[in-house]
Design a protein that fits this description.
Distance between the termini of chain A: 40 Å
Number of strands of chain B: 0
Shape of chain B: flat
Radius of gyration of chain A: 16 Å
Mean pLDDT of chain B: 74
Oligomer: heterodimer
Low-confidence stretches of chain A: none
Largest sheet of chain A: 2 strands, antiparallel
Largest interface: A-B, 49 and 56 residues
Largest sheet of chain B: none
Strand content of chain A: 5-15%
Distance between the termini of chain B: 24 Å
Structural class of chain B: mainly alpha
Chain lengths: 100, 331
């Protein structure tokens, strides 16, 4: 599965506990500054659920919380480690670059 | 890897324990619980939920509508949400197994829509050309004053036609790309020839059109009619070439889904264009003191209606087809 930005944001948000759609949107806005639209958010949720990386919990009224599964957490961890390596390399190379 | 996994899995366990229907404590600081508003009206972007695939909507529709309502109540603007929902619906049709309209087993449906769309477009183009009203701007202004229904209908037809052409072009690119890869992989050169047929036919016919003698002599008229009939035959040959490619090559699940969306868009455009043509003809006749011969409009409207109905039936057939197996490559 492709790690699109919404997928990473949703998995990261769910990494510290189950959330429903609105809680996800607000959490992602707070830690990433990204305002995910409802269609984008539920597109990511449906793909992640199809893949088995998140699972739905019993609905509270019409708001259904989702939680990350073990395989979802594993894939997120792997992806973030790669991203961290890339970020570290990029930042260190930028520091080495002579100032124009 | 096990060590790396401890932290997220530990958090996950905590998360599962806090799954009581309310967000965990950490979320309260970011305002994750929407303000209670039992009488809040349904925001208008929520109507776009009908654009989602039915089974997708059955699974997520209520939650998504609730989220739209909560976000609107939290101050999110309607228009960006509407665009986001629209593109989310398109994405649901194209990229998820839930929205699959077309599969390998649905070639006949796509081919049925294609044939009807080609016939529809050919008759509509001929009628538009035969009217002799457009596309000059001056005549458009004159007609707009004398017969307001004509430019209205023309604009609707142009918009519907553009949607149909764009959808066809997108599908042609997707299928063409897969067909080229398949032909290269299997060494089937005849597929390349077949794929070039529509371009060749169009080039020959349009090139020949430039060479036709002008004038209204009997010979010129017969030549023009003959060339027109040759054009119809060329359209049929080119379409059959495309159909042969679709039947012979192998296409990915994503390509079939793009074909499904394109077929739905084309059929919707046909419905709108047929409606516009019928309404335009009726209004035109009601406004004219001496409306004259209506046979052309009646024939064109009938062909448009029949081809549109056949395209709709083809689409409905595929919707009732057995669900496709999930493609693990598409996530």
């Amino acid at each position: 599965m492709e790690f699109t930005e919404p997928v990473v944001l949703v998995l990261t948000s769910l990494a510290d506990g189950p959330k429903h759609g609105y809680a996800l949107a607000k959490d992602i806005e707070s830690f990433a500054g990204a305002k995910l639209g409802p269609g984008t958010l539920y597109g990511a949720l449906s793909r992640l659920e199809d893949r088995g990386w998140i699972e739905a919990l019993p609905a509270d009224d019409r708001r259904r919380p989702y939680r990350i599964t073990a395989s979802g957490a594993q894939c997120l961890a792997r992806h973030l480690e790669t991203a961290q390596r890339v970020a570290t390399t990029g930042l260190s190379r930028l520091e080495l670059r002579p100032t124009p | 890897m096990t060590g790396r996994m401890n932290a997220p899995l530990g958090r996950q366990t905590r998360a599962a324990r806090s799954a009581d229907g309310n967000p965990p404590n950490a979320l309260r600081s970011v305002g994750s619980v929407p303000p209670p508003a039992p009488s809040r009206p349904r925001p208008w972007p929520a109507v776009l939920l009908v654009a989602y695939p039915p089974d997708w909507r059955a699974r997520y529709g209520d939650e998504l509508e609730s989220l739209v309502s909560d976000l609107r109540g939290g101050g999110r603007k309607s228009l960006p949400m509407a665009f986001d929902l629209f593109f989310g619906a398109v994405s649901a049709w194209v990229t998820t197994g839930r929205g699959a309209l077309m599969t390998e087993r649905s070639k006949d449906t796509l081919i049925g829509v294609l044939w009807n769309w080609v016939a529809f477009a050919a008759i509509a183009a001929w009628f538009g050309h035969d009217l002799g009203i457009y596309p000059t701007a001056i005549s458009a202004q004159q007609v707009a004053v004398l017969h307001p229904a004509v430019p209205d209908a023309y604009n609707v037809l142009q918009a519907a036609g553009s949607i149909g052409v764009v959808a066809t072009a997108v599908a042609a690119l997707a299928f063409g790309f897969d067909a080229v890869r398949y032909a290269a992989r299997t060494g089937q050169r005849r597929l390349f020839v077949l794929m070039g047929m529509p371009v060749l036919v169009a080039a020959v016919w349009l090139g020949g059109l430039q060479l036709l003698p002008a004038g209204r002599s009997a010979g010129s008229l017969w030549l023009a009619v003959g060339w027109l009939l040759l054009g119809v035959a060329g359209i049929a040959v080119a379409t059959q070439a495309v159909v042969t490619v679709v039947r012979s090559a192998e296409f990915g699940a994503r390509t079939w889904r793009i074909g499904g969306v394109a077929a739905a868009a084309v059929t919707a455009a046909m419905v709108v264009a047929t409606g516009a043509t019928i309404v335009w003809g009726i209004v035109e006749r009601l406004n004219e003191a001496h409306p004259g011969d209506a046979s052309g409009w009646l024939i064109v409207s009938a062909v448009m209606a029949v081809t549109t109905a056949r395209a709709i039936i083809a689409l409905l057939r595929v919707r009732n087809a057995p669900a496709p197996a999930e493609d693990p490559a598409i996530a």
